[in-house]
Structures are given as structure tokens and as C-alpha cells.
Write a structure and sequence with these properties.
The protein has 321 residues and is mostly helical. About 7% of the residues have low confidence.
């Protein structure tokens, strides 16, 4: 039975890798996948098409729920070409694949060691997709904020040259690199479909939760209501945002040691525990000599203290500008 389980785990990992590769390199348009999602107050659009029967069934069950809507919004912010059902399928595959690998590294078999090893792998696999999505969101948001001042300069020059606000946004979608060009292309296409500019900009802010972008959108909406020279307003905002980005970069450099130390101190005990479990399970099994409650209680207390310490150090390094 063991060879079949090993072969099954390897096949699951291969399918997992192929699925990620196909999804991330799909030729389907990002606009077609995400534009409709925000034309109905952030709710999911029609998700028929090339989705499989299983993911389509899952989509129908979760697309109207608040949890499914939240997952769809997180995927849109990370610019990942997944349906909600596909994302859930990815989590299941990650859990099964990592559990199979951990079970194999733990020696296999049906004894307690193999079961605990598979449980550890499954828990890690369950967190991997969410961690990757959060990582992609943070990277994309940082790139967007760094490009925001260039976008404002381009809009200011366009407005002074006689462009309308929509024409200036269209120039941004053509001249600047991703991700800011992709997002403003969606804004322009929404307005071309008849969506009011205020709604299109609110949808942009929902996809990109940036404080600087919120400042810009508020200025544009106020100018459209009360009038004024939008180019001068955006020029002042561009200077403010550029200085904020510069100061944030300096703070990031000065606090990099604290953030690195906090991450290392939080991860070292976790990786060391996992390494010792797979290397010498008899030694780690001594935690459970007086019963599972004692061992899991010790691990739970350690995990709680590690989590508290990590968030305290990250809070110290988080300086608002």
C-alpha cells in the first residue's frame, strides 16, 4: 500500500504545479475576469466558461456569500486569475500534497508518527495559498504606490495640455507600466461602459486599498463637485505623495533590522521543531510521554508566545507617515 500512496502524493504534487502554471500563464484577459466583479458593488460576476464542473458548483455555492465575496476581492487585489472555486481547489490540493510529502518524510506507515507528520504537512499546506495571496497583494500595492506620483505627473501634464480627465487616465493606462496601467485601463473601460466616474474610482480603491490613492480620488471627486484647477491640485498631491514614498523608504531601511529579527525569531523555533520531529521523532515524542494534552499544551503555549512576540516587534517597526 505504501508505494501507491507515494505515487499518489507525487502525482498530486505534479498536478498542483501544473495547475499553478496554467492558471498563472492563462491567456484569458484580466479585464474580462475582474471587470464584471466590481460592476455590481463588488459581488462576483457570472463565472461560467472554462471552469470545471466542480469549481463551477463551488462558485455557485459561495459567490453570494460574504466569505466568497471576500475571497474574490482578495484574489482581485492580488491580480490572480482564479475563481473562488479554483482557489478552494488549490487549497485542497496544497493540503493533500504537503500532507503526503510530510507523511513520506515522517516514515510513512499507519502509526502515530505518520499521522502527526501528515497533520503538520496539511496545516502548513492550508496556510500556503493564503500566504502567497497576501504576499502578492503587498507587493502589488507597494508597486502601485511607487508609481502613483508618476501617474499624477502624467495626468497633470495631460490636463495642462487640454486633455479631459478621462483622456488623461487613458494616457496613464497606455504610458505607464503595470500594475497602475492595468488598473486605470479597467477604470477607463468601466466609464466607457457607462459607469459614473465616481463609481469607477470607488471600484479602483476597493481593488487597491491605498491611502495615497484614497487621497487622490477624494480630490478628484471634490473638484468635480465644486470646481477648481484639477492640475494644480494633483500637482500638490503628487509632491506630497512623492515625499511620503521617500520617507517610507527611509523608514523601511531603518526598521529592516527589527523586521528581519522578528521574522527570524518567530520562524526559527517553528522550523527547528519541524526539523527535529522528522529527524528524531523519539526525542520530540518525549513531549507526549505524560499524555497528548501535556504535549499539545506546551506547543500551544509556545506558539502563542511566538505569535505575540512577532506582532509586538512588527508593531514597533510599523511607523505611520
Amino acid at each position: 500500500m505504501t508505494p501507491f500512496l507515494i505515487i499518489g502524493g507525487i502525482l498530486v504534487l505534479i498536478l498542483f504545479g501544473v495547475g499553478i502554471f496554467v492558471s498563472m500563464n492563462s491567456e484569458r484577459s484580466i479585464v474580462e475576469r475582474r471587470l464584471g466583479q466590481y460592476l455590481d458593488d463588488g459581488k462576483s460576476a457570472d463565472k461560467k466558461g472554462d471552469a470545471s464542473a466542480l469549481t463551477d458548483w463551488v462558485n455557485k455555492r459561495v459567490e453570494k456569500s460574504s466569505y466568497g465575496d471576500r475571497i474574490a476581492r482578495q484574489l482581485a487585489r492580488a491580480d490572480m486569475k482564479f475563481h473562488v472555486g479554483e482557489y478552494f481547489a488549490l487549497i485542497v490540493i496544497a493540503v493533500i500534497g504537503t500532507a503526503a510529502v510530510a507523511w513520506f518524510l515522517g516514515g510513512g506507515g499507519t502509526e502515530l508518527r505518520g499521522g502527526i507528520s501528515a497533520l503538520i504537512g496539511g496545516v502548513v499546506g492550508g496556510f500556503l495559498p493564503g500566504f502567497y495571496v497576501k504576499r502578492q497583494q503587498a507587493k502589488r500595492l507597494q508597486r502601485f504606490n511607487e508609481q502613483l506620483s508618476d501617474m499624477l505627473n502624467l495626468m497633470v501634464n495631460g490636463l495642462r495640455a487640454g486633455y479631459s480627465t478621462m483622456q488623461a487616465m487613458e494616457a496613464v493606462s497606455k504610458e505607464l507600466p503595470s500594475p497602475i496601467s492595468d488598473e486605470f485601463r479597467r477604470v477607463v473601460q468601466e466609464m466607457q461602459l457607462g459607469i459614473p466616474m465616481e463609481t469607477a474610482l470607488d471600484n479602483l480603491l476597493r481593488r487597491i486599498p491605498s491611502d495615497d490613492l484614497d487621497f487622490v480620488i477624494t480630490a478628484v471627486n471634490v473638484q468635480r463637485e465644486v470646481g477648481g484647477n484639477l492640475s494644480e491640485i494633483l500637482d500638490v498631491i503628487s509632491f506630497t505623495i512623492r515625499e511620503r514614498v521617500r520617507i517610507k523608504g527611509e523608514i523601511r531601511v531603518l526598521t529592516s533590522q527589527v523586521r528581519t529579527s522578528g521574522t527570524a525569531m518567530a520562524l526559527i523555533p517553528i522550523f527547528l521543531t519541524a526539523f527535529l520531529w522528522f529527524l528524531n521523532p523519539e526525542y520530540m515524542g518525549s513531549f507526549f510521554l505524560k499524555g497528548p494534552l501535556c504535549g499539545f499544551g506546551a506547543f500551544g503555549a509556545a506558539g502563542f508566545l511566538i505569535t505575540i512576540g512577532y506582532f509586538i516587534m512588527m508593531k514597533i517597526a510599523d511607523i505611520e507617515v
